[in-house]
Amino acid sequence: MDLELTGKAAARSAVKDDARLDRRSTPDQVVAVLREMLSAGRFAPGEPIRERELAGAVGASRGPVHEAMSQLAAEGLLYFDPYLRHAVINPDINDVRELLTMRSALEGFAATRAAANVPPGHLAELRALVAEMRQAAVTENRSAFFEIDLAFHETIVRIADHQLLLDNWVQVTSRFALTSRLAISDIYDSADALAELAERHHALIEPLVVGDVDEARRLAEEHPLDALQRYELGQFDRRLANR
Question: What is the pTM of this model?
């Protein structure tokens, strides 16, 4: 992941030849490309993203780019600064705390419903995702690991079969993913830490298998709160080190 790239160079490096848009592209198409660029780490936290440079990089006209950036700002992936204009979010500890406590609530509810009636095929899907996490841990591929991590939790949300829950999950997924890349994933800084996290995901499956609703909810609620605790401890250690 190269966070040294900035501005026009970053935008150009993020767009594959077969993914470039054209000047008739809609705001939704530009949103999809820009969201992918953000999730892939093509811009550093707090880095300005200028409409003209981005439009030239992706091949779209400035109108759809402007609308796309406004939408992503509304979703919390960009913020608007009077001087910098739109820039990538730079999450602080309060942002991380709010997102992870929200995940705790959403995922606890999802796990409760999932444990009551989980199809066997979905259990196999969850186990396969854990196997992929284990492999990503071995190679210390944190980017791949956290993409699989998000897919794992979204699978449980889909098993819950609750449309409003799913709608809310989808709405905040990109912000979860970006904040994880910018702030949370750094706390899992070794193959052993990632392997431990993969096994904690495996543990989330067990109460679903036996239909233990209470245990499924407890583990699902604790899972993001454990990440929050690790993050807060890491921030405390950094403050001590900088004194």
Answer: 0.75
